[in-house]
Predict the structure.
Amino acid sequence: MSYRVGVISGDGIGPEIVAEARKVLDCIGEKYGHTFEYEEILMGGCSIDATGEPLTEQAIAQAKGSDAVLMGSIGGNTSTSPWYQLPPNLRPEAGLLKLRKSLNLFANLRPAYLYEELKEACPLRDDIIGDGFDMMIMRELTGGLYFGERKTEEVDGVLTAVDTLTYNENEIRRIAKRGFDIAMKRQKKVTSVDKANVLDSSRLWRKVVEEVAAEYPEVTYEHMLVDNCAMQLVKDPKQFDVILTENMFGDILSDEASMVTGSIGMLSSASLNDTKFGLYEPSGGSAPDIAGKGIANPIATILSAAMMLRYSFDLDREADAIELAVKRVLKDGYRTIDIMPQDAKKAAVKQVGTAEMGDLIVERIN
Ligand code: NAD
């Protein structure tokens, strides 16, 4: 099969880490008989330099014409880069927000997986970590509190701010279906997180998710209040498979879940709409402090490419091959600078750069 992949290399370490993901995709293509056709799309600071805008209509059309988009990262040093002298709607991040909106990317997926070899980076106790954990935070991305009406006004001489949290049943149903579909590809368990003891929006959330759950008899379904979920993530993260939740709760819980896994350089993510299309990117930023040095960790981007194969192209076997190769490379003792242990000699590991890490993963796929 042939797949059209839009590529947003972006700024900072973006081009370096995307190059390694492409190397890995090409290796998968050769080994399993697929063709990946890449089309570079300008977004972020590099687009501002070239066109005066962080995302042009042409770039949006290119993204829409792709089967999926693989992204590095955008933005620069927010204190020193001239991009941050521009009005907010012309800064690099405005491009990403506009792209997400134009593509209707309402479902955000962030896996939190603890590698045996990186246990040291996990701040939890050994008895809690056990033999590791593997969960997927599924966050609604285009509704709720962040998109509701807001205002600040004086009421009886007192400054008063209002934010509105709105969800309709269709918005809840589409993300819930996505969550259950993804659970079917994993351990078949969904924990839906809400605050149904207080909020009307959460009561509707729970009602609709329960209706969707009835359509997936193979999936074990439970609901959990958000405050309890925040505690359970550090008390017993092993219990979770897919955590399905609304925008603000997901924002907070996904950061909490990613912290317990260790390095930002390992964390992939995907944003999906209601077709097979998705935007795949590492969770970290453009790391301007290390850009151009050849030392950035490409693994989060490589794992994002694996998510693209799994969720946009239904190439589960190929995605498994990439994920296995990443595990092997860690097992064989190779680390980029961000995941080097305190005592490298004792841990018997070797530091490698960005391109070498990509090569080592390719070797293991082959
Ligand atoms: P950052 O994630 O870029 O960097 C934070 C720290 O993590 C830095 O020390 C960096 O060196 C390190 N780091 C990040 N990714 C790494 C990797 N792959 N390998 C090794 N180390 C890595 O966050 P920041 O410094 O707050 O932001 C820098 C720029 O990135 C800003 O312009 C910000 O707006 C932008 N940003 C973009 C995205 C995106 O493109 N989706 C996301 C977050 C931040």
Observations:
- The mean pLDDT is 95.
